[in-house]
């Protein structure tokens, strides 16, 4: 049975999320403290983590950042903070989704299922024979281990950074708009600001480009989108 970690200090909200998820067949662990929630997320294996932003101990943003340093577990932020800047910040730190309160519990369950299914497809897909490690001019992407190296040095990627880089690298010399990349990596059924694609591209470049003035991998096609140089 799949396990969901809910880090939420509002007990009524946490119990509502738990009830709807358990009806759908999930097992839920509740935690009302940010520090304890982070410890649980790092020490145990969960299929997905749901985290509020405003928590005692550690904020949801900090929890998201710390989880992404060690794990690719799907993560949904739920918050009363509805400003675009907060959404972009959360997604930029590696969250897979951002929902604002009040929200539909049924929609939460649908998103949880969607993110878990997508993660399982990305990790376990064996649809066609292909090299386990994709190599492009000093860049190495290990599909099996979901790890990235540049000139022999490993670069730590968040889950969505890795997914976005792999998608572009597997489709070289093709220009994709931000909308198309959002649909391909986050999913057409998800809601979000496509500007998060720009944020993720910047983070990826910071990690893999040796000279920002001479782009080797991900090019900007002004007014259109992005292209991976094959």
Q: Write out the CATH superfamily name of the largest domain.
A: Response regulator
Q: How many domains would you count in the coordinates?
A: 2
Please report the number of helical segments.
8
Give helix and strand order, one letter per element, not per position: EHEHEHEHEHEEEEHEHHEE
Quick structural overview:
The chain is 41% helix and 21% strand. The chain is α/β, with parallel strands linked by helices and 230 residues long.
Explain how this protein is built.
The chain is 41% helix and 21% strand. With 230 residues, the chain is of the alpha/beta class. The protein has 2 domains: 3-124, Response regulator (Rossmann fold, 3-Layer(aba) Sandwich); 133-228, Arc Repressor Mutant, subunit A (Orthogonal Bundle). It has a 5-stranded parallel β-sheet, sandwiched between helices. The protein has a 4-stranded antiparallel β-sheet with strand order 6-7-8-9, with helices on one face. Strand 1, helix 1 and strand 2 (27-31) form a beta-alpha-beta unit. The longest helix has 20 residues, at 105-124. 33% of the residues are buried.
Output the keywords.
230 residues, alpha/beta, Rossmann fold, Arc Repressor Mutant, subunit A, 2 domains, 5-stranded parallel sheet, 4-stranded antiparallel sheet, 8 helices, 12 strands, globular
Topology:
Elements lengths: L2 E5 L3 H13 L3 E5 L2 H10 L4 E5 L7 H9 L6 E5 L4 H9 L4 E4 L4 H20 L8 E4 L2 E4 L4 E4 L2 E3 L3 H12 L4 E2 L1 H8 L9 H14 L9 E4 L3 E4 L2
Parallel strand pairs: 1-2, 1-3, 3-4, 4-5
Antiparallel strand pairs: 6-7, 7-8, 8-9, 10-12, 11-12
Helix pairs in contact: 1-5, 2-3, 4-8, 6-8, 7-8
